Amino acid sequence: MALPRSFQNLVENLTILPGVGEKTAERYVYALYEKEDDDVEALAKALINFKKNIKTCAICGCLSDETKCEVCMDNSRDKSTICVVEDSKSVFMFEKTHKFNGVYHVLGGLISPIDEVNPDDINIVSLVNNRITEDVKEVIIALNPSVEGEMTSLYIQKLLESKNV
Ligand code: ZN
Q1: Which has the closest alpha carbon to 132: 100, 162, 89, 101?
Q2: pLDDT of 93-125, one tens digit each?
Q3: Residues with CB under 5 A from ligand 1 (ion)
Q4: CA distance 107 to 7
Q5: Residues 115, 24, 50, CA angle at the centre, nearest 5°?
């Protein structure tokens, strides 16, 4: 006998997540079956609420519930130091250390010819054109030491040099 259709449907929807294969998804569904209705409803609401409210900061591109993120809105942050990172995940990792008081710029990816990701596909232009002003004293490029990371760093460095930063 096949799994009930509603069960199978939920399994298929869960397997869109990274690291969740059919076995893991089935385990989650059995676990959800054991939960109270309220808990499952809260989970469903949280999923919808997240997708409805989450956006990227209009300034730095980091994930935020507001149009501008907390860091960009914080006047005590040093706006003359910009840390360039690959993704929002990196921002929240840096923030956990409480050691950086500057602001961020999220690229939203790395240049990768193999995956056909060109400089235009990530937020490089907005960095160089909008963020790098006369007030900026330091740009820290904090990307992965992978081939793509190095390539992206070099590309940004060259652009900054041509802007005399
Ligand atoms: Zn921001």
Answers
A1: 162
A2: 999 999 999 999 999 999 999 999 999 999 998
A3: 57, 59-60, 62, 69, 72
A4: 39
A5: 65
Global pTM value? 0.84
Ligand 1 center to 77 CA (angstroms) = 11
Distance 84 CA to ligand 1 centre (A): 12
Would you call 33 exposed, middle or buried from its count of C-beta atoms within 10 A (0-12, 13-18, 19+)? exposed
